Write a sequence for this structure.
């Protein structure tokens, strides 16, 4: 029998740069945002783990596309956003929204649901206040990335900024399980926004070394993102000065800085 301290949080690679997070107690496992079934099934088989629940953060196909295949007639509970249509999956999904709890017996997991609109209108995140070792965990889909944030497909900059503020307010040691390996390209952009940030330069070297060895740069932590992620630093005077200088714009407040930064990122190469 494994002790609860041996819970594993594993990023299973899918598509080009997605991670499907699998959490296991050594026997049973959950999958977060399985856009593809095959990599999850292969990984579970390799470890001898049984899939007991699926969590979904938003409706995009690279996050939900593998669910039907994984269910394949099994009674596995699926939790997903109350505010988004999930097509043929709709009858199988238990709808949750900000403030709701998702409680599982094995693995023993207790998530609080957070509303984090912006990338999509009904995007949610799952926050585990503490694992058996006391470490909090966040599954945030395409809202917060290491050194970046999701594109605004459906929401406004003000919504996304409020969503990121709520995530940035979580405990600093929270491990952040993002859904994509975008870190190196995000760091290139972050360096353009925040060129004098020493912590960011250090992270740039460390992240590059990890990727050279094929190692995920995730999870990150909330404390680390507060220090290096320009989208969490829109209120920082040096970030605002750098944006004003490079974009030849007046940066009146942090929402203006965030909006300019998000638009710049969309065209940044
Ligand atoms: Zn998405």
């Amino acid at each position: 029998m494994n002790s609860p301290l041996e819970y594993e949080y594993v990023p299973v690679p899918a598509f080009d740069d997605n991670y499907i997070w699998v959490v296991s107690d050594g026997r049973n496992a959950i999958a977060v945002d399985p856009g593809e079934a095959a990599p999850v099934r292969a990984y579970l088989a390799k470890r001898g783990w049984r899939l007991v629940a699926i969590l979904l953060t938003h409706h995009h196909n690279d996050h939900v596309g593998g669910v039907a295949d994984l269910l394949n007639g099994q009674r596995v509970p699926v939790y997903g956003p109350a505010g988004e249509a999930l097509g043929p999956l709709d009858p199988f999904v238990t709808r949750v929204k900000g403030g709701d709890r998702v409680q599982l017996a094995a693995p023993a997991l207790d998530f609080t649901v957070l509303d984090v609109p912006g990338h999509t209108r009904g995007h949610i995140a799952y926050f585990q206040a503490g694992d058996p070792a006391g470490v909090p965990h966040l599954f945030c889909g395409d809202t917060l990335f290491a050194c970046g944030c999701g594109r605004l497909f459906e929401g406004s900059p003000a919504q996304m900024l409020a969503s990121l503020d709520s995530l940035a307010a979580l405990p600093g040691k929270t491990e952040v399980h993002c859904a994509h390996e975008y870190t190196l390209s995000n760091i290139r952009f972050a360096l353009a926004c925040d060129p004098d940030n020493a912590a960011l330069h250090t992270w740039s070297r460390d992240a590059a070394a990890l990727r050279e060895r094929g190692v995920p740069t995730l999870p990150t932590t909330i404390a680390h993102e507060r220090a290096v992620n320009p989208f969490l630093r829109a209120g920082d005077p040096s970030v605002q000065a750098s944006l004003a200088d490079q974009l030849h714009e007046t940066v009146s407040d942090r929402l203006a800085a965030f909006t300019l930064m998000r638009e710049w990122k969309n065209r940044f190469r």
In short: The mean pLDDT is 96. The radius of gyration is 18 Å. The CA atoms of residues 127 and 138 lie 5 Å apart.
